[in-house]
Design goal:
- Helices cover about 25% and strands about 20% of the residues.
- The model has no long low-confidence stretch (mean pLDDT about 95).
- The chain is globular.
- The strands form two sheets. Strands 1, 2, 3, 4, 5, 7, 10, 12 and 13 form a nine-stranded mixed beta sheet that branches.
- It is an alpha+beta fold.
- The structure holds 2-oxoglutaric acid and fe (ii) ion.
- Its EC number is 1.13.12.19, 1.14.20.7.
Amino acid sequence: MSDPALLPAIVDGHDARAPARLVHSLRHTGFAVLTHHPLDVALLQAAHAEWDAFLGSPAVDNYPFDPVLQDGHVGPERSETARGHAQRDLKAFFHHYPDGRYPQEVSDAALRCRAQAEALAVQLLGWVQQELPEAVRAQLSEPLPDMIAGSRRTLLRILRYPPLRGDEPAGALRAAAHEDINLLTVLPAATAPGLEVLGRDGRWRPVPCDPGMLVINTGDMLQEATGGWLPSTTHRVVNPQGDAARRPRVSMPLFLHPRAEVRLSARHTAGSYLEERLRELGLK
Ligand SMILES: O=C(O)CCC(=O)C(=O)O
Ligand SMILES: [Fe+2]
């Protein structure tokens, strides 16, 4: 039997117990799902629709990926290969940083979603800070919300997983199993299901993602900063079957990155940690 305790909790953001419930779920599953969050869902859906069209159009080639600044567009032919995998992911994406390029072909809807998600992120990091055991909190070089204050490194990734054509290499997935590099990831519900989390029992479980929900997960940097008290958790995006295979999937995760000089642990600053991981991904 699958252990229901390993399913990410669905936490009502209006509930007074939300901070404790969210952090409990992060601790035990690496994920939590928030309802009644402050993001404007209609704005998000408008951003999804226009980015679906843009990322599927030739105009994206006006914004080739910049390996130094790490912004711009990466098409399916150059997409990431997750650690330990042979096949590239079946996805295209655009990276937006506060000081980076933003395409003129789309409205500012995604930027407005970004601002809302960043405001929520400060609140969520405050919840985590408050719920950490004292011994773990004492190890932090500064409070978690402060780590991202003034950071120019928080990354908005706008992903489009194209419809499947049927000739994909065997074993290729929309996103192969991986862990995120950053502190926390804030991921408003994508346009279709597919996200799965690996439980401690070795079983994959779908992450609930109805419209109006928002997924939070722990990344490697938060695992590093909390000495493993909050584990970074493996997740993937599986390929749809049947009719759903003919539809693209759009999602817009925000990856919270501290300022480069923020000390995560005795061995790593945020800057040194990121450098190491980007090399492994083949993005540097
Ligand atoms: O598209 C998704 O739902 C998740 C994407 C993801 O895990 C990532 O880009 O790191
Ligand atoms: Fe991820």
